[in-house]
Amino acid sequence: MLQSLPYHQKVREHFKSQPKTWDYFTVEKNKEGQLEQFKSELLKNTYKFDPAVDHFIYDKLTIAKEKLELQNLPVTVYQAQYTDELNATIVYLAGEAHIVFSGAVTKLLDEEELLAVLAHELTHIKLYSMLDGDLEVADRIITAIANNHNSEASYYETARLFRLYTEIFCDRGAYKVTGKTAPVISSLVKVSTGLDKVNAESYLKQADEIFSAENDLKTAGISHPENFIRARAIQLWHQQQELAEPEIIKMIEGHSNLDQLDIFKQKELAGLTRNFLQLFLKPKWFQSTMVISQAKQYFTDFTLDAKAVLDEKTIETLSTLHTSIQDYLAYVLLDFVLIDPTLEEIPAGWAIQFAEDAQLKDTYDVVLKKEMKFSDKKLQQYKQKMLSAYYEVKENEGEQIYEG
Q: What pTM value is reported for the model?
């Protein structure tokens, strides 16, 4: 059974919690007028396949509609003119679906592959009919925001992930119709490469080889091309069905680069940074006016937490972050080390100790060397001197960040 993916639902709930935005995008437009104008433009720029003649298209369309339970959906198929780009797209407007092929897609694909592509496109409609049409609204909202040049990068990343999860969902629709992964994968590769012969099994081995490299990279992660993700995702789905969901999510969202945070990971990082500062600033000697003022530059509502502790869960979280985020946290430490010169060498020593305890020692050492322009020898001398100053400070039990 096809069900919307957790990421779709997260985006939907996020925007439904903003009534003004949600209501604006759910207002009914004059869709009849839009439909007529759209049809007119299609007829001017495409060849319309005829159901009475072009059985190689419409017979497969009938099969896909039945298996996706979309028998009552009016669908028309077209071939775009004036373009060699290989593609297939679908537009759903006023209760009608219009599939447009671009380039020589119908010539490249065999019968099973063509069925897979038609089913994939129809599954877009299946998705947008779920949850009372809310996912179609959510898609329009995040796409509109991401396309605005003034929007934050996190919205672009959210839109990218929403589209990728949509493609993965539609691949499942194609799999449901064909009953096989091979035509789903080979059609994907053919359309993206223009090759007329593709071996799906070989492509899967190629994808597995790429992903196996991640086991050695851990916190750094690697950037995976979308087609490899989709191929591996449909294979995992074929093997495990719903049980594959955690692995697919990990494959897509497992290691978030600082420059590729969606709106949800951005919120998580803000919470992590707040907790990080509450730990680092817990010693009372560190809580000068300048230091607290700096903390409020990060969070206007920043407050100290006397109960903050560096527990095993926090250490594990910090040690498995993407290297770019570990770098960011190291710079946060250095930012507070340098903010108040009246505290002298004590914050620098505390930062060195804290970084070691938080499994960020190597990262913080690199940042120190770079920003302070230290050689290896100078770095070690600096660390010894700063730690000596810190060790002279007496902290009471309430200032400790360690469990027990």
A: 0.88
